[in-house]
Amino acid sequence: MKHLLDIGVLSVEDLHHLMALTDHMVEVNQRPIPKVPALRGKTVVNLFFEDSTRTRTSFDTAARRLSADVMNFAVSSSSVNKGESLRDTIETISAMGVDAFVVRHRSSGAPQQITQWTNASVVNAGDGWHQHPTQALLDCFTIRTHLNRRDGFDGLHIAIVGDIKHSRVARSDVQAFTTLGARVTLVAPPTLLPPAVEQWPVDISHRLDELVGEVDVLYLLRMQRERMTDALVPSLREYTAHYGLTPPRARRLQPHALVMHPGPMNRGVEMAVDPSELPGSVVLHQVTNGVAVRMAVLFDLLGSGADLGKTDHPRGEDR
Amino acid sequence: MERVEGRSVMSADDVRRAIVRIGHEVVERNHGLEGIVVIGLQRGGVWIAEALGEALANAEGTQVPVGSIDVSLYRDDVGLRPIVPGAVTALPPLDGTTVVLVDDVLFTGRTVRAALDALNDHGRPRAVQLAVMVDRGHRELPIRPDFVGKNLPTGRHENVAVGRDGVVLS
Q1: What is the model's pTM?
Q2: Chain B CA closest to residue A310
Q3: How far apart are alpha carbons A289 and A258 in whole angstroms?
Q4: Is residue A59 part of a domain?
Q5: SS3 (DSSP) at A94
Q6: For chain A (length 319 residues), average pLDDT per consecutive 10?
Q7: Is the complex ipTM higher than 0.85?
Q8: Are residues A109 and A148 in the same domain?
């Protein structure tokens, strides 16, 4: 793998491979000194054109735990504010000699475009409403671990609730979950469903109450407050009444069911219960697994040698 | 790994006996099994480490801790050899122990060097000893085994495959 731009292009085998690699990274993270020399001498640039705390910190931690050097490029204090184009920014940083760009951008497709301007690997850390592949991987890894589904998600029923239309997380998760064999139901008011959703491999529901007692995973999306101004939902209170995880709904969850959220949470809106009192909440595990998954991705792109197959070093000979 | 016209150099019985003999040598060298931990290198060394653990238990009546270590994140040629998914490190506490590191084939010594680095991150053993089923020569680093199943002169481009059912040179 040279780039990770879109979770949809990965096969079942690719997903299983990355999750198996993540097992190694989880082991590293549990050590007293959670650091290995695997990416010594590699440079990873975090290029975040959009606000993000957890994703940027997570990639930063992941790169450092593999001993890579990390450059954090803060757009607010950069020449982008002086009018430098994206292309010039990328070519300038590339000229310093970097091995990977981790890119978040408000425009869909920006990471793909960046691959044209650099020889470095590009990891999409979220582009517009399009994709957030590492979030999907960490969600898959969390479900795989907590529901003990190492062989795939056949027979699992996952409900994704909330603002599907504006959510890159939902797009990537739907692709990854269904690739692994899960049945996915999107739960949202019609105004928050994307156009052409009938072509997605999912079921659609407008009533959370019909589903909450039978799903294995309840995945809540962040209700973006700025959507209120677009009049897509009447009010946050009404949203919570129909689509929020309220105490009565929480009591109806199956005992083994997981509650997930990509963060940041709106307490009292989509998460109308205290997640620390929900036995099925794995929200913080998602964050922990995020570091391990991003280590696996960076290692696969920069260190695994998947593209170095043409070496004259026969495999298994060098002991 | 394709096996073309392999030549058998050890039979299944030879391999089994070598493990038993190495077990006795470990006991002799260390005057017993006090503080001994057996660690197999992922993947080829793991089953040999387990068999050696059994051999030690049969010889002395005590079960020593057996673990495994994955060194792919420590290699100096990260990128030349792909990581083996699923072959995760599982180690008992190492501080103050005598580690017997076990691998199937000793060749350049680079894997063993990586393993020594990896061990260092997990604890501080009192001593580390090295047991291999086959020493095929061609060392590139100052590393030597303490216990050897068989010394096998090989060409650089030959391939050595070690299994429970024997050792094949091709």
Answers
A1: 0.88
A2: B80
A3: 15
A4: yes
A5: helix
A6: 95 95 94 91 94 91 97 74 84 95 94 96 96 98 97 97 95 98 97 94 96 97 79 87 95 97 92 91 96 97 59 40
A7: no
A8: no
